[in-house]
Amino acid sequence: MTFVAKPKAHHPKLPLNEIGLTRRDYEGSVSTLCAGCGHDSVSAAIVQACAELSLPPHRFAKVSGIGCSSKTPSYFLNKSHGLNSVHGRMPSVMTGSNLANRELYCVGVSGDGDSASIGLGQFAHIVRRRINMLYIVDNNGTYGLTKGQFSATNDKGSTSKKGAPNLYEPIDLVSMALQLGATFVARSFSGDKHQLVPLIKAGLRHKGMAFIDVISPCVAFNNHKGSTKSYDHVRAHMQNVVNADYIPHHDEITADYKPGSKEDINMPDGSTLRLHKLDDQYDPHDRVGALNYVQRSAETGDVVTGLLYVDPKAADCHDVMDTIQKPLNQLSEADLCPGQNPLDSINAGFR
Amino acid sequence: MSVSYNDFVIRFANVNGSGSASANGMFAKALFRMGIPVATRNIFPSNIQGLPTWFEVRVSEEGYMGRREGVDIMVPMNAETLVEDIASVKPGGYLVYDNSKPLPKHLRRDDIHEVGIPIATMLLPEFSDPKQRSLFKNITYLGALAGLINIEFDVITGMVATQYKGKDALIAPNIRALEIGRQYAYDYLDAPLPIQVRRSDKVGNRIMVDGNAAAGLGSIYGGATVCAWYPITPSTSVAEAFEQHANRLRIDAETGQKKFAIIQAEDELAAIGIVIGAAWNGARSFTATSGPGVSLMSEFLGLAYFAEIPAVLWDIQRAGPSTGMPTRTQQSDILSAAYASHGDTKHPLLFPSTPKECFDFAADALDLADRLQTPVIILSDLELGMNDNLSEPFEWDESRRYDRGKVLSADDLDQLDVFGRYLDVDGDGIGYRTYPGTHPDKGAFFTRGTSRDEFAAYTESPDAYQRNMERLLKKWDTAKTLVPAAEISSGKSRVGVLYYGTTALPMPEALDLLEPEGVILDTCRVRAFPFGEEVTAFIDEHELVFVVEQNRDAQMRTLLITEGDFSPAKLVRVNYYAGLSISADFIQQSVLEYFQANKLPRLTEVKS
Known about the structure:
The complex is a heterodimer.
Chain A: H1 38-52, E1 60-64, H2 68-71, E2 81-84, H3 90-100, E3 105-111, H4 112-118, H5 120-129, E4 133-139, E5 142-143, E6 149-150, H6 173-180, E7 184-189, H7 193-205, E8 209-215, H8 231-237, E9 263-266, E10 272-275, H9 287-299, E11 306-310, H10 317-321, H11 333-336, H12 340-349
Parallel strand pairs in A: 1-2, 1-3, 3-4, 4-8, 7-8
Antiparallel strand pairs in A: 5-6, 7-11, 9-10
Chain B: E1 4-5, E2 7-15, H1 20-33, E3 38-43, E4 52-60, E5 71-76, H2 82-87, E6 89-98, E7 113-117, H3 119-123, H4 130-149, H5 153-163, H6 171-188, E8 195-196, E9 207-210, H7 211-221, E10 226-229, H8 236-249, E11 261-264, H9 268-280, E12 285-289, H10 291-307, E13 311-317, H11 334-338, E14 349-350, H12 355-372, E15 375-381, H13 382-386, E16 388-391, H14 410-415, E17 446-448, H15 462-482, E18 487-489, E19 495-500, H16 507-514, E20 522-526, E21 528-529, H17 533-541, E22 544-549, H18 555-564, E23 571-575, H19 584-597, H20 603-607
Parallel strand pairs in B: 1-8, 2-5, 5-6, 6-7, 10-11, 10-12, 12-13, 13-15, 14-15, 19-20, 19-22, 22-23
Antiparallel strand pairs in B: 2-4, 3-4, 9-16, 14-21, 18-20
Helix pairs in contact in B: 1-4, 1-5, 4-6, 7-8, 7-12, 9-10, 16-19
């Protein structure tokens, strides 16, 4: 972590966005994560996406669970309220928050331990409930804060820093999200802001559950020889697929690379991660097709990235429940309390 | 033979799922509508169909609503439990049974009265459908009872008409079944029996309702907009009642849309998480559960305590530990609720005794949680939650305003030079909060379960941590002045009795039973934790205080000793925990035994 405080003064010539704010207005406090941690890149991508979208920086509800990833809501959007809750339970807290005020942008940040192990049930059920939110998993395949245990997204056979192999099958949250009915499912990489920032923008604008699994390797505990999440290993095992991050419903999303190309990513430690893009034939509106594609690619060790599935006409939880447009937390006594009259007839019914 | 009026216990033994509940309910309601105080108890198995179930009605002109030992009239409709059902009848009592098949000889008792009615035989020519015949058995014995104990017949037939409104074809056969039973009683039995009912004026304007329905309704009135829950007996009907009333009372007139949100969560952890998330974002929210759910919610309750987020939790207690007896009543979550979670945590508790109090406390708890910015747990139980209880009618003071606690608006923030979420500006231990999204530049803060300073910044400073924990204690002292005060009746005795929740039901009768024995007790009905000064004063002013509760380990007594520093020797435990509700007889006997064993002077003697 750095001990250098962020300067309070802004450069006078920082560019302003449509609502007259600079990117600094979207930042948070100084990160306490390891120098070069991929999670900080995700936070920076969130800052950039929100600034470029000119969203009011105080109109967010940031919720997280526990772990390295869950510390990050402190590091972006400090004009918004954040809630660092309990391990694996971000989804339920975010559900409540969204029920209370449907007008806020909901950003939930979780990790692979948080969402794929202790909170797997909550992950599954918030996807089912279609909460209108951006759900980001900073996925590094390891428990960083407790110093390097395997997480449930770590591949079978991948080894720990001390050389012990992981004996169990990995859980793929992207496949689960697709299967459970998420209406926006993406995978990205913390080092590729050209891909990640547009995905975050699209996710924030998506109505319903937008899930982004962001591969964010742990420089401290999961970047050694033998780990399938190390940069070297990933680079050596990447297979080329064609990128398909063209999203007709969200014109903001653009990418530097063209369909049919591949992308080498330079990581903080100087290694390279080659992300595989989807091919021209890929249909991001075919949920079952997407699921098959992801599963088949996993069989051969490929890392599939991009916007894998989107249903632009999705309904959210409030639509499903038919709740009033006005946020529930702004309803007054006049809206909520029926008064003595109906109580008289209710009493009569109990006589 | 002398006739007694409006003073007996009747018990119906049925098979779970046989349709007996509606006939039994009509029996109790008919007496209630005749102005006679009744208390009903369903004693049912953790099962949907096929197992034994009992329905007991305590009929009491005196208004005694507690359970009483011994059965005066037994109606055994379940062959499986016939042996114990016959054995449960008090000597001199009545066995009203279907004698289409004769009673086995070895079961007959010569100290009780057998009243045989050939229900199955009589129904055979009347109803050709065997299923209908079986259902109408229940109605027929209701008709017979009407003749036997003098229930006003038009009260019952009136209820049939109301109950089957819209299914009019069912009205005539039901009334026919009632008449068959009643006519048989008149024609062939010595009706009416010496145990009878007669119209009374003792009900007044009271209603008959279960506590869970009252809790759900009270949550509507209290302004709850988010309900998140996970099904668990005996709490489920709280959320169901909330939904039922909300679908009528909380629909926006213009759009037809809902002014509430209900989530049946995937488990209790998610339920309380949703409640906490909603409350953090400024919506009044609650959950309902039972003991196992409180265990599951404990981690979250610690977060809400430490991060100071309001939450309301109904715990409809049942018999534990573990799965225990899910359909039996206890007051055994006192300690697990009071100290739910790890670290130094404690939560305000409310103890309702009646449905009216469930209604009132539902709204009070939402106010308290907002005011104190902390979880508030309401400890009801199966006895109160799932049985129809006589209750004062629900009332809402139109001048009442919700207390949303210390919440700053955008305008408030503009007036403010310094905002610190955990600054104790007013000296009551409670800081000012803001809802997310309130102001573009001011008032945002980061909520966390880790230690922080007065400005919500993360810190592990020993001083800052301890300062915060001390402030939470100051807030606890503030809570003592805000929670409902105990109900105290004092000045008659040096010995007191302290109780709470449904243990209040048999207490008037227990006191009346003790008085002829020379034992007079002052009373303290605790309604909340933390204990107010009045509770401390009550215990200080008495030489001895019986603490009567429905658990094995004297949990309230432990709480009093721990939190009030009272001498354990002074607090005498009286504990019933077998899963039925505590009876006046049990309280009387326990108190008398203590007096005898310790050679205590009878209070009437001390007085003189």
